[in-house]
Every structure is written in C-alpha cells, then in structure tokens.
Amino acid sequence: MTDSQPTTRSSDEPIRVGVLGARGRMGAEVCRAVDAAEDMDLVAMVDAGDWLFNVPDSGAEVVVDFTHPGVVMDNIRYCVEQGIHVVVGTSGFTDHRMDMIRGWLEHKPDRGVVIAPNFAIGAVLSMKFAEAAARFYESVEIVELHHERKVDAPSGTAARTARMIAEARAAAGLEKYAPDATTDALEGSRGADVDGVRVHSLRLAGLVAHQEVLFGTTGETLTIRHDSLDRSSFMPGVLLAVREVLKRPGLTLGLESMLDI
Ligand SMILES: NC(=O)C1=CN([C@@H]2O[C@H](COP(=O)(O)OP(=O)(O)OC[C@H]3O[C@@H](n4cnc5c(N)ncnc54)[C@H](OP(=O)(O)O)[C@@H]3O)[C@@H](O)[C@H]2O)C=CC1
Ligand SMILES: O=C(O)C1=N[C@H](C(=O)O)C[C@H](O)C1
C-alpha cells in the first residue's frame, strides 16, 4: 500500500495482511490464522533475507511483526513510512522505543501501530488482575517461564507486568521495593530489578509461555498464574489487533483497550 492509495476502505473487502518473521514459530502460526480468517487475505510472507519491499508491493494494509528485538524497529519504521498499519508482537519495547514510533507516526497521523507484549487473552487479564492487586500487598515478585529457544529475558510480558505493578504501587504510596533483608547474595539469585519489582526468568524445554505473579502480606499470599500451552492461544488476539488497528490511528500499547478492560 502506498500513500497514493485511499485512507478509507470498504468494510466488505478482506484486510490485506503481510507477516514479518513468517517462517518463525509465531509467524508461521499467524500465517495459518490469517489464511483461515474469512475477512483477511494473506498477501505477503517475509522472513530474514527476504526483501522488505515485497510488503508494499503486495498491497498489504496491515503488517504483523513477530521477528526479533534487534530488527523490529527498522521494520516498523519502514512500514509506517510506506503507510502500512503495524501490529507488533515482538518483544523488547522500552519507553524510548515507543517515543520513536510516536515520532514516526506524527508524519502519518491516520496510520496505527499496535504493540502487544502478549496477545493471549488470559495473559492480558492476568496483567490487569496483578495491577489491581498490587496496592493491597507489600511484597511482590514475578516468575516467568518460557521455552529454551527464547532469546530475551525477562520476557516482554513480565517487564510490562512489572511496570504496571510499579505504577500501581507508586500511586498507592507503597515503597518502590518490597521488604527484603538480603545482604549476601550470589549475583542473579534475586532476579532482575524492573522498576523495583524482582523478575525471575526460567528457560525449560517443553514450556511455551507462562507467568506467575506472587503477592504477599501478613498471613496470606496471592498467586496469579497464566499458561499459554500452545501458540494458538495468541491467535484470537492477533486477529483482533489486525481488525482494530485500522480504526486506531497512533500508537496503542496492549490489547486492554480493545477488550474493554
Ligand atoms: N506478543 C506476543 O503475544 C508474543 C510475542 N512473541 C515474541 O515474538 C518474537 C518472535 O518469537 P518467535 O516466533 O518465537 O521467534 P522465532 O525466532 O521463531 O521467529 C522469528 C523469525 O523472524 C525472522 N527474522 C529475523 N530477522 C528478520 C527480518 N529482518 N525480517 C523478517 N524476518 C526476520 C527469523 O529468521 P532467523 O531465524 O533466520 O533469524 C525467524 O524466522 C519474540 O520477540 C517473542 O518474544 C512470541 C510469542 C507471543
Ligand atoms: O518468546 C516467546 O515465546 C514469548 N514472548 C513474549 C514475551 O516476551 O513476553 C510473549 C509470550 O510470553 C511468549
């Protein structure tokens, strides 16, 4: 799709979708899901080593990116410049990266980018539940568990969950750090510090994507756990984002607003 193409579309036409990272674990699943969706046409499948200009040449209106934190920013920039809406599942997003994308979108005010740390509905719900619980508990830690092929740690979902909890704690006047008497620790044994919240990353063959948020206070604990047992769990959320991004100019973070939660 180029800028010479209209910004409005008939709702009867299938949405023309391109997939970046199409031969990867998630990309291949997205290609199958888009192919099976009656209101979408899969028009481009691009992986490492393929030409990115195949995407605008194919007439794609929306691109779905499941690639790698090291390449995703170049992909988003190119697609936005070409006037293509982008749905991003790739991890590795910081506030700085988000500000860069907002800057690119200023030149394309009718285009949208959706960045979702996790497309599984249960994961989105569990993050909201954790945010709601945060103010009631002085202690909190996150354990994320993933397959052994994952290249980044902590997971994007855990980083986002930690930030949501940190904001809720600050708003409630809780200390940034939960009580912790540790003075003597082997490096790494207390996990990563994400805005004051400890995050522990496990990598194990046989897993897909799992997360526990553990809260504690006097005499009780609360554990919020979500398990993606198969990558099909992410597909309803991906398809929803493809439909919604056409109606949502600018940058949207997370699926929450699309699920009305
Ligand atoms: N938001 C969510 O719900 C989810 C997010 N993810 C995230 O999605 C990302 C991908 O995960 P996963 O599918 O498991 O990873 P994979 O490694 O299986 O897939 C990534 C694919 O992208 C390809 N690739 C690399 N560079 C480019 C490029 N410049 N253009 C096009 N394709 C490229 C890779 O090729 P090559 O192998 O040759 O480098 C590979 O085929 C990760 O960041 C992961 O954390 C995963 C699951 C759910
Ligand atoms: O790499 C994965 O597999 C996943 N990545 C995302 C993340 O980093 O949070 C989403 C999900 O956890 C699966």
From TrEMBL:
Q: What class of enzyme is it?
A: oxidoreductase
User: InterPro entries from the xrefs?
Assistant: DapB_C, DapB_N, DapB_N_CS, DHDPR_bac, NAD(P)-bd_dom_sf
Residues binding (S)-2,3,4,5-tetrahydrodipicolinate are: H147, G156, T157
**Lineage of the species this protein comes from:** Bacteria, Bacillati, Actinomycetota, Actinomycetes, Pseudonocardiales
Which family is annotated?
Answer: Belongs to the DapB family.
| Annotated localization | Cytoplasm
Where is the Dihydrodipicolinate reductase N-terminal domain positioned along the sequence? 15-119
- EC number of the protein: 1.17.1.8
**NCBIfam families per the UniProt record, alphabetical:** dapB
What UniProt keywords are attached to this protein's entry? Amino-acid biosynthesis, Cytoplasm, Diaminopimelate biosynthesis, Lysine biosynthesis, NAD, NADP, Oxidoreductase
Enumerate the spans annotated as Dihydrodipicolinate reductase C-terminal domain.
122-259
Q: Which PROSITE patterns match?
A: DAPB
The protein's gene is named dapB
- A single Gene Ontology molecular function, please? 4-hydroxy-tetrahydrodipicolinate reductase
Q: What is this protein called?
A: 4-hydroxy-tetrahydrodipicolinate reductase
- Locate the active site: H146, K150
Q: Report the domain of life of the source organism.
A: Bacteria
**SUPFAM superfamilies (UniProt xref):** Glyceraldehyde-3-phosphate dehydrogenase-like, C-terminal domain, NAD(P)-binding Rossmann-fold domains
Q: Principal localization?
A: cytoplasm
Its function, per the record, reads: Catalyzes the conversion of 4-hydroxy-tetrahydrodipicolinate (HTPA) to tetrahydrodipicolinate.
Quaternary structure (record): Homotetramer.
Q: In which pathway does it act?
A: Amino-acid biosynthesis; L-lysine biosynthesis via DAP pathway; (S)-tetrahydrodipicolinate from L-aspartate: step 4/4
Q: Which reaction does it catalyse?
A: (S)-2,3,4,5-tetrahydrodipicolinate + NAD(+) + H2O = (2S,4S)-4-hydroxy-2,3,4,5-tetrahydrodipicolinate + NADH + H(+); (S)-2,3,4,5-tetrahydrodipicolinate + NADP(+) + H2O = (2S,4S)-4-hydroxy-2,3,4,5-tetrahydrodipicolinate + NADPH + H(+)
Residues involved in NAD(+) binding: G21, A22, R23, G24, R25, M26, G89, T90, S91, A116, P117, N118, F119
